[in-house]
Amino acid sequence: MINFALLALVGLAAQLVDGSLGMAYGVTSTTLLLAIGTNPAMASATVHLAEIGTTLASGISHHRFGNVDWRVVLRIGVPGALGAFAGATFLSKLSTESAAPLMAIILLVLGAYVLVRFTFFGISTRKLGQRLPTKFLAPLGAFAGFVDATGGGGWGPVGTPALLASGHMEPRKVIGTIDASEFLIAIAASVGFFVGLGGGAIVPWMAGALLLGGLIAAPIAAWLVRHLPPRVLGAAAGATIVLVNTRSILGAFDLPQPLHVPTYVGVLVLGAAAVGWSLRAHLLARGVERRRVADDVAEGDAVAA
C-alpha cells in the first residue's frame, strides 16, 4: 500500500511537470521505476499503459483551455505512433543486460537536454501563426515516437523544443498539442510491448498507481501552465532526471566505487546551480515586465492629463 501511494505521488508529480512543460512524464516515471529495480522493457511498457489514461485526460483538459491545435496533433501523432510501435518492439528484443545501460544513457541525454533547454533558453514566446509543413512534422513525430518507446520517455523532450523552436505556435498550444498527441503514442507503444513481450510485461498495480496520480494532476497542470514559472520547473525536472540516471549508469558500467560520491556531488551542485540560474532569470524577466507595465501606465496617465 505504501509503494502504491508513493508511485501515485510520482505519477502526480510527473504529470504536473508534463502538463506544464509538454514533457517529462515518461522520462521521470521510467527513471524512478528503473531506480527501484524494474526491468527496462517492463518499466517502459508499464509507463506507456498508464499514459493512455493520463494523456487522454491531459488532452481533454488542454482542449478545454484552448491549448490544442488538432491539425498538428494528427500530422505529428500518426507518424509518432508508428515510430513508437517500432521502438517498443525493438526494446522488447533486447536483453535486460543490454537494455539497462542503453535506456539509462537515453534518459540521461534527454534529462540533460531538458536541463540545458530550460536553464539557458526558457520557453520561446514567438507567435508567428504560420502552418507547420507535414514534411517537418512527420519525421519529427516518427523519431520522437521511437525515442519515447525505447527510452521510456522522449515524446515531449524531442517534440516540444522542436515545435517551440519553429516559432510557428504559441507555447501554450505547443504544450497542449504535444500532450494531446501523446495519447496516440501511448497506445501504439503499449500494443508494441504487448506484441513483443506479452501481457506479462505490464505491472498492473504500478500502472494503476501512476495512472491515478496522473489523472489527479492532469487538469491541475493544464491550469498551472499559466501560473507556475515553467523555466524553473523544467530545470528542476532535468536536474532530477540527470541525477537518477547518473546513478543508473554508474551501476550499469560497474565504475569504481570511489568515483560515485564525487560524481553525485558534482551533479547535485550542477543541478542546484541550474535551478538557481533559472529562478534568477525568471525573476529578472518578471521585473522587466512589471517595469514595462508601470511605464505604460505612467505614459497613459500623462497623456490623459
Q: Can you tell me the number of structural domains? A: 1
The sequence of SSEs as H and E is HHHHHHHHHHH
Low-pLDDT ranges: none
Oligomer: single chain
| Separation, N- and C-terminal Cα atoms | 67 Å
What is the molecular shape? globular
Class derived from helix and strand content: mainly alpha
Strand coverage percent: under 5%
The largest sheet is: none
Number of helices: 11
| Rg, nearest Å | 20 Å
Mean pLDDT: 77
Quick recap:
This protein is an all-alpha fold and 305 residues long. The protein contains 11 helices and no strands. The chain has one domain (2-304).
How would you portray this structure in words?
The chain crosses the membrane at residues 72-91, 103-123, 202-225, 232-252, 264-283. The chain contains eleven helices and no strands. It has 305 residues and is mainly α. It has one domain. Helix 4 (70-92) packs parallel to helix 8 and helix 5 (96-121) packs parallel to helix 11.
What would the keywords be for this entry?
mainly alpha; transmembrane; 305 residues; globular; 11 helices; single chain
List the helices and strands and how they pair.
Blueprint: H1 2-21, H2 25-35, H3 40-64, H4 70-92, H5 96-121, H6 134-151, H7 155-166, H8 171-197, H9 204-224, H10 230-252, H11 260-304
